[in-house]
């Protein structure tokens, strides 16, 4: 079921994280270290603002949308959503401008301030509408809302940088124009007359569900982004820019891999909760984890293997050394973060125990803050990524172990072991491949890795694959 839904959303699931991955690479050629530090501090804070001020309502809306629809209460739902998103957008704008003035550029021009504000407003609106589109299986609308803004916006910004030179105004303008274009293309005329009168009971229920998620969002953001601010404050904005390239590539690659399978997972789980109950959703969650690992493990380990060949080809020469130091730890942190967001958090979402997410995110955020003081001083910018990876590994490993030992979940152990075996063989084979030129070596390593892993997985999962083919054939 998840595989079918994933294939429907695959183009948009690839394009959105791909744009973030490409942005880091392209900026190394068209911008300097300071501009990269400048822009990534703004976009990183936008992620925090979205997570704190919009996602609490968005996750509640996704969790209960089926209830509103079943009871013919969509009019009230949309009226309340309109008000909540408007208020949340206003708070986002205020927070984004404070971040700009206090932590990024205390002499920011009015134009930059306006662009930062517009970016916050359109991001909030488009992300919420994309979440609802995914529930309604509106694939084209979902794809437009999630892909056009970051992808088209990136290339507009890069074109402006190429034409007019290194200035943070141009990437910001590109992103704003991209989000505005997505809003126009995905505009949907409301079939119901909306008012500005939210349902107070719905808001109270959403706050009860979502308030812990606001704190959890801040802590989850700190886990990944605090080292960036710590480096900018204790070292320099230029060092933060160097760090941003390495950590950005690692995290974005992990996101690119996991986004191929995870966006369809949560709507499917919420649908199962309403139609078949929590036990069915928990059972599906274990299959979701397996699919995530099947894609994530070979992707991350394969990239680690080819990194010495790949990085000098991807980024401008002056960024290579710093990227090689930071990126391995960022890949590890991104992989663990993917398991947290695509598996562990989903377990607590479907059980409505969002306070648990807040507790473990808080513990890991405190660990990152403490570790940064030691690791950045000891290892430089590499220490920032190390602090994130160590905190995530300890925290997520402990929570998953507790869920297993308390029999709250039953992991697909045999299938996970098969996947780990295939990944290990792939790694050993790829590591032995060499060639005269970097491009040839890169192509050979990718070919050997893809072929060996695919062949082993087809062999070990042949019965499962045959069953899926028969099922689809009989359904057709």
UniProtKB/TrEMBL annotation:
Pfam families: Polysacc_synt_3
Coiled-coil segments: none
Keywords associated with the record: Cell membrane, Membrane, Transmembrane, Transmembrane helix
Membrane topology: Multi-pass membrane protein
Domain of life: Bacteria
Keyword Transmembrane helix: yes
Compartment(s) where it occurs, according to its Swiss-Prot or TrEMBL record: Cell membrane
Keyword 4Fe-4S: no
TM region positions: 12-30, 36-62, 83-101, 107-122, 142-162, 168-186, 206-224, 244-269, 289-314, 326-345, 357-379, 385-405, 412-430, 442-461
Protein name in UniProt: Membrane protein involved in the export of O-antigen and teichoic acid
Native source organism of the sequence: Rheinheimera aquimaris
Record lineage: Bacteria, Pseudomonadati, Pseudomonadota, Gammaproteobacteria, Chromatiales
């Amino acid at each position: 079921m998840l595989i079918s839904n994933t294939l429907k959303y695959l183009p948009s699931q690839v394009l959105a994280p791909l744009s973030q991955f490409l942005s880091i690479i392209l900026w190394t050629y068209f911008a300097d270290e300071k501009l990269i530090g400048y822009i990534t501090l703004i976009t990183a804070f936008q992620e925090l603002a979205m997570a704190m001020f919009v996602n609490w309502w968005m996750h509640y809306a996704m969790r209960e949308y089926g209830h509103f629809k079943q009871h013919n209460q969509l009019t009230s739902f949309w009226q309340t959503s309109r008000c909540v998103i408007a208020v949340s957008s206003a708070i986002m704008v205020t927070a984004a401008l404070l971040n700009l003035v206090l932590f990024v550029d205390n002499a920011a021009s009015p134009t930059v301030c306006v662009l930062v504000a517009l970016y916050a407003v359109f991001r909030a609106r488009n992300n919420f509408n994309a979440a609802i589109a995914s529930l309604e299986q509106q694939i084209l609308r979902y794809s437009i809302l999630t892909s056009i803004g970051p992808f088209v916006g990136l290339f507009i910004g890069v074109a402006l940088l190429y034409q007019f030179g290194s200035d943070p105004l141009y990437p910001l303008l590109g992103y704003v124009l991209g989000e505005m274009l997505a809003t126009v293309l995905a505009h949907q005329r409301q079939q119901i007359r909306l008012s500005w009168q939210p349902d107070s009971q719905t808001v109270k229920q959403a706050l009860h569900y979502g308030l812990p998620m606001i704190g959890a969002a801040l802590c989850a953001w700190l886990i990944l982004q605090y080292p960036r601010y710590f480096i900018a404050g204790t070292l320099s904005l230029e060092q933060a820019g160097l760090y941003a390239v390495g950590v950005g590539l690692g995290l974005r690659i992990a996101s690119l891999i996991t986004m191929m399978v995870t966006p369809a997972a949560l709507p499917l789980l919420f649908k199962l909760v309403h139609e078949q109950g929590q036990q069915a959703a928990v059972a599906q969650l274990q299959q979701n984890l397996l699919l995530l690992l099947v894609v994530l493990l070979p992707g991350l380990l394969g990239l680690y293997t080819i990194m010495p060949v790949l990085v000098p080809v991807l980024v401008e020469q002056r960024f290579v050394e710093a990227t090689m130091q930071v990126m391995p730890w960022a890949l590890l942190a991104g992989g663990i973060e993917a398991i947290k967001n695509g598996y562990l958090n989903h377990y607590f979402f479907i059980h409505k125990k969002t306070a648990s997410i807040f507790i473990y995110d808080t513990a890991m955020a405190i660990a990152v803050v403490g570790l940064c003081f030691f690791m950045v001083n000891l290892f430089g910018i590499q220490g920032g990524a190390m602090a994130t990876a160590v905190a995530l590994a300890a925290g997520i490993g402990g929570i998953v172990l507790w869920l297993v030992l308390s029999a709250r979940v039953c992991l697909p152990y045999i299938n996970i072991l098969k996947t780990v075996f295939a990944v290990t063989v792939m790694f050993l084979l790829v590591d032995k491949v060499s060639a005269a030129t970097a491009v040839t070596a890169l192509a050979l390593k990718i070919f050997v890795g893809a072929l060996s892993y695919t062949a082993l997985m087809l062999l070990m999962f042949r019965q499962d694959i045959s069953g899926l083919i028969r099922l689809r054939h009989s359904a057709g």
